[in-house]
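Q: Please design a sequence for this.
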C-alpha cells in the first residue's frame, strides 16, 4: 500500500471521528511517525496530548482534495452539517459571502435555507443533498421545493434586516435556487433549478454567466434607501 493510500485511511478516520489517538493512527496507517506528523502539518489538524484533533472538517476535505483524494468519498465520511459547511467554503473560495442554516418567514410560512451565497447581483439559495441514492422523483420534488423557497425569499428579501446588510448598495438582486448533491444527477436542470454535484460546484460558479438566462431566477428591485 502506498503512502497516499495509507494517508487516505488517516483522513477518513479523522473525518469520521474528529479526534483520534495519534499512536492509534500511526499503527493503523503504518506510516512512520515523523512522516505522518510532517504530512499532517499541512492540514487543518492539531496534535494535543497525544491526540489528533480536526480544526476544520470542511477545510480538511478541501485540502485533501487538493492532494488528489476524491472529494466525493471524503464528503461521505463527514456529517450532514459538515457537507453544508463544505459547500459554503467552496462558495467562499469563489468570492461569495455565505450564511448557513438561514431561517425566514414570508406570508406566515416558515422556510429554512442550507446556504445563502452573495456575489453582486446574485443571491444563490442552496439546498445541500447528501443523498446516497438518486431517484428521479426525489430530485424533481427537491427542485420544485427549492424553487418555492426562491419565490418566498424574493418576496421577503428586502424586508429581512440581516440580509439588508448583505445587499447594501445593490440596486437589485437575482435570486437563483440551486441543488448541490454529493452525487452526479441524471438531471442537470429541473424546472430551471440547476442540480450540481459538489465536485463540480466551482466549475458551475465559474460558468454561471454563460447559461444564467436558461436557469430559474427571481429579480428583486431595491428601494434607493437600501
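A: Design:
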Amino acid at each position: 500500500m502506498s503512502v497516499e493510500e495509507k494517508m487516505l485511511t488517516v483522513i477518513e478516520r479523522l473525518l469520521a471521528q474528529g479526534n483520534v489517538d495519534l499512536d492509534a493512527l500511526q499503527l493503523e496507517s503504518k506510516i512512520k511517525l515523523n512522516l505522518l506528523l510532517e504530512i499532517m502539518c499541512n492540514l487543518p489538524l492539531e496534535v494535543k496530548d497525544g491526540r489528533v484533533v480536526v480544526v476544520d472538517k470542511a477545510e480538511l476535505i478541501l485540502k485533501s482534495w487538493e492532494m488528489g483524494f476524491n472529494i466525493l468519498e471524503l464528503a461521505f465520511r463527514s456529517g450532514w452539517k459538515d457537507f453544508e459547511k463544505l459547500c459554503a467554503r467552496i462558495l467562499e473560495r469563489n468570492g461569495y459571502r455565505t450564511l448557513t442554516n438561514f431561517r425566514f418567514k414570508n406570508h406566515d410560512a416558515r422556510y429554512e435555507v442550507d446556504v445563502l451565497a452573495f456575489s453582486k447581483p446574485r443571491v444563490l439559495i442552496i439546498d445541500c443533498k447528501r443523498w446516497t441514492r438518486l431517484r428521479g422523483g426525489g430530485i424533481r420534488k427537491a427542485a420544485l421545493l427549492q424553487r418555492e423557497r426562491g419565490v418566498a425569499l424574493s418576496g421577503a428579501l428586502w424586508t429581512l434586516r440581516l440580509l439588508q446588510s448583505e445587499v447594501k448598495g445593490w440596486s437589485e438582486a437575482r435570486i437563483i435556487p440551486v441543488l448541490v448533491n454529493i452525487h452526479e444527477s441524471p438531471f442537470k436542470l429541473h424546472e430551471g433549478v440547476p442540480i450540481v454535484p459538489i465536485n463540480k460546484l466551482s466549475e458551475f460558479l465559474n460558468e454561471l454567466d454563460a447559461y444564467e438566462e436558461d436557469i430559474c431566477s427571481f429579480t428583486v428591485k431595491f428601494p434607493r434607501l437600501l
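Q: Thanks. Anything notable?
A: The longest helix spans residues 136-156. Strands lie at 19-21, 45-48, 51-54, 97-106, 109-119, 122-129, 172-181, 189-190, 193-197, 218-221.
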